[in-house]
Amino acid sequence: MNLNECPCSGKTLARLIQPAVMAVLANEPLHGYVIVQRLTGMTMFQDHGPDITGVYRLLKSMEKKGFVTSSWELAASGPAKRRYALTPGGRACLTRWITTLRTYRDAVSNLLDTAAASGAAKTRRGGNRRTPTPEAKSDEG
Amino acid sequence: MNLNECPCSGKTLARLIQPAVMAVLANEPLHGYVIVQRLTGMTMFQDHGPDITGVYRLLKSMEKKGFVTSSWELAASGPAKRRYALTPGGRACLTRWITTLRTYRDAVSNLLDTAAASGAAKTRRGGNRRTPTPEAKSDEG
DNA sequence: GTACGGTATAAGAGATAGTCCTATAGTGGA
DNA sequence: TCCACTATAGGACTATCTCTTATACCGTAC
């Protein structure tokens, strides 16, 4: 029982790299490496950043699905870079993601309410502040 | 390119079954089947409900990790039921989940902002914000 | 002139999580 | 007997994610 190995630590909260990549690509075509840097600055990857291999792998699969296109960029100096751009299909996917994310955020809030109402959060004593939440009036607890 | 097979459809938005199960178990010990029914009523599983096999599988793994305990309940009629109860360790995990979920909700909001700001949501017309992207003038290929 | 770190891409192997299909067992109704 | 509902669960598969390792180019330090 090591809570640091548990998903509750927040380390493995993912499954959202796809929309995150699409979101940064929606602004402008970028190289994989730059995408990773952008993602690293995002809230969802705060301290650790996404796995680089995973991002490249994802970009490959996204290209296969037609969500992005890529082209090699040969600069005068430095290694070749692959430049990824969002396709109209990818943009449609991102648009749908936005709806999904709203639902998701809602679901997480709902889950938070359920969890908080269960009393699991009451580890600390000293008067659980009677939050004026709507469920305060329900006859539960 | 079938968006119905894409995670953006919201079908595969999961990874949160664990805290959901813990949240419903925090109130009272329950049978697996009842847990599934409770989950089905939650926002995050609105229309489809969780996979039953997955929930039983999860409960097993949670027991192995020490987050729940189980005991067989032999009623006068009907098949034997396994009754799951949250352990103190499981409760600690749930408490941590609450913090994680807040962070997660925050991250999703942040991602929503990024995605919405990218203009992906602007499927409707109404004057596309004049954002002459830098690569509009460079002809890279 | 090579060792090191940064930029840039990517495959292999494995872990984890979740879904679909199937199997079991008891109860009750048509 | 067949079917539906309650109740639990394994097998096989897929998707996703991580860890390790590999490559190639570049600049700087020693």
Question: Which features would summarize this protein structure in a list?
Answer:
homodimer; 141 residues; mainly alpha; 3-stranded antiparallel β-sheet; DNA-binding
Describe this structure in words.
The structure is a homodimer of 141-residue chains. By secondary structure, the first copy, chain A, is mainly alpha-helical. The first copy, chain A, has a single domain (12-114), classed as Orthogonal Bundle (Arc Repressor Mutant, subunit A). Chain A is 45% helix and 10% strand. The first copy, chain A, has helices at residues 17-27, 32-40, 52-65, 88-117; strands at residues 30-31, 68-73, 81-86. The longest helix of chain A has 30 residues, at 88-117. Chain A is elongated and about 60 Å long. The two termini of chain A are 29 Å apart. The relative contact order of chain A is 0.11. Residues 123-141 of chain A have low confidence and may be disordered. Chain A binds a DNA duplex (30 and 30 nucleotides) through helix 3.
Mind sketching the topology for me?
The structure is a homodimer of 141-residue chains.
Chain A: H1 17-27, E1 30-31, H2 32-40, H3 52-65, E2 68-73, E3 81-86, H4 88-117
Antiparallel strand pairs in A: 1-3, 2-3
Helix pairs in contact in A: 1-2, 1-4, 2-3
Chain A binds a DNA duplex (30 and 30 nucleotides) through residues 7, 12, 14-15, 17, 31-33, 50-54, 56-58, 60, 77-82.
